[in-house]
Automatic annotation (TrEMBL):
It comes from Periophthalmus magnuspinnatus. The lineage of its organism: Eukaryota, Metazoa, Chordata, Craniata, Vertebrata. Heterodimer with IL12A; disulfide-linked. The heterodimer is known as interleukin IL-12. Residues 19-93 form the Ig-like domain. The gene is IL12B. This is Interleukin-12 subunit beta. It holds the Pfam family IL12p40_C. It is found in: Secreted. Residues 1-17 form the signal peptide. SUPFAM superfamilies: Fibronectin type III. Its main location: secreted.
């Protein structure tokens, strides 16, 4: 009997499981976590019972709109039916005469391991220009679903309870503090990346804790979270190499300006592509100069942290090694043309007089 009661009780609990969790994202924005099964959630228009009972009709005449469209429900409390992602939307409630009273945006976060809709799972990538603590995480929207960043949680700790995040007034910057980190992130103007800075990152010390970032994206009141964990040493990607000197025999360059200094402490490895009409030859260097083959007409470069297994920089734009030679020839040619012109002018003048 007791067993039957327990089974029944757990069955009832299962049946009323949706939403599995409810939390407030910010004022007037509610998140319902659901598994996809049927369920319901009660929305209140006026939250204070006292205020409701003070109304002449005790709230009976209040009516509701979902995304601006009137729905056939009246009263202070609205029952929102949930199934998969239905039930999401921006709900407003109004006085009998139509005047606006309140609103709640209901976001649905489906937590059932199903296919993500806004981005492909794992399609968030992060990259850092150096070890100073700045990094950027970026993604590509599904072509039909261009959403917004709803929330960012980021810290150097695996315990989510040890993270306190706060949001700026515009909902575009978040600062998260834990016992081991203080990281803030803001949405870039493009809307498809966030730029973050780890206030406690020391570039000269080994990173002890991994950075974990979770970006919550919203599209059509659908909320999804995408996470990434990394050490800066894994995502560091140098900027473009700058060429300082080039002639037919040799080429010299410097470290990217954005790279960490001193360079002796943060060495880079370079790869140089020597191109001529027929060949492509790759060489590696740890120094900042290289001899050029006689045939080489064009070079380009990329760089990578010499001490970690992180990404190569982008290839630099191609640089022609013939440019100087060409310039000299062009200059001589222009000079000659100018002399011819002036001779012509003098001759024509003397002819006129
Ligand atoms: C309006 O709704 C929000 C929830 O979306 C609630 O926090 C707030 O108290 C409500 N305002 C009133 C006046 O009841
Ligand atoms: C939801 O509706 C309220 C009131 O109509 C409006 O102020 C708010 O901007 C809407 N939110 C969104 C995300 O459209
Ligand atoms: C993010 O979503 C997944 C399911 O998609 C869920 O299991 C996980 O708990 C969520 N993480 C947070 C921090 O809400
Ligand atoms: C992220 O990296 C993966 C693997 O390198 C790549 O396939 C994917 O296209 C990248 N996504 C973005 C948005 O750059
Ligand atoms: C986190 O870093 C910011 C920016 O440097 C600073 O203003 C803030 O006081 C720091 N917070 C804590 C708790 O260390």
């Amino acid at each position: 009997m007791y067993f039957l009661f327990l089974t029944l009780w757990s069955f009832l609990r299962m049946a009323s499981l949706n939403p599995t969790n409810v939390w407030i994202l910010r004022d007037n924005v509610l998140v319902l976590e659901v598994t996809g099964g049927a369920g319901q959630h009660l929305l209140r228009c006026i939250h204070s019972e006292d205020e409701v009972s003070r109304r002449p009709d005790e709230g009976a005449g209040i009516f509701w709109k979902r995304n601006g469209v009137k729905i056939p429900s009246v009263g202070n409390v609205l029952t929102v039916a949930l199934k998969e992602t239905s039930g999401r939307g921006n709900y407003s409630c109004h006085d009998e005469d139509g005047s606006f009273l309140n609103h709640t945006e209901v976001l649905i976060l489906e937590d059932n391991g199903k296919k993500m809709r806004i981005l492909e799972p794992d399609h968030i990538n992060c990259s850092a220009p150096n070890y100073n603590g700045r990094f950027q995480c970026f993604w590509t929207w599904d072509s039909l679903r261009v959403g917004k960043v709803a929330l960012v949680r980021v810290g150097r700790h695996n315990d989510p309870n040890d993270l306190r995040c706060s949001e700026d007034a515009e909902g575009k910057q978040w600062t998260c503090v834990s016992s081991t980190s203080n990281i803030s992130c803001s949405v870039d103007p493009s809307g498809n990346s966030v730029s973050c800075i780890d206030d406690q990152q020391c570039p000269y010390a080994e990173e002890v804790n991994v950075i974990r970032i979770t970006v919550y994206l919203v599209y059509d009141s659908l909320l999804e979270n995408y996470s990434k964990s990394f050490y800066l040493s894994e995502i560091v990607k140098p900027g473009n190499v700058r060429i300082t000197k080039v002639n037919k025999k040799a080429i010299e360059w410097t470290y990217p300006e954005s790279w960490a200094s001193p360079n002796s402490y943060f060495p880079l490895t370079f790869e140089i592509a020597h191109l001529d009409e027929l060949h492509l030859e790759l060489t590696s260097r740890t120094s900042c100069w290289a001899k050029l083959n006689r045939r080489t007409t064009t070079v380009c470069f990329r760089a990578k942290d010499a001490l970690s297994n992180s990404e190569w920089s982008e290839w630099s734009p191609e640089r022609s090694v013939l440019i100087r030679e060409l310039k000299r020839v062009t200059a001589r040619f222009t000079h000659t043309t100018r002399r011819i012109r002036s001779v012509e002018r003098v001759t024509s003048q003397s002819e006129r007089t």
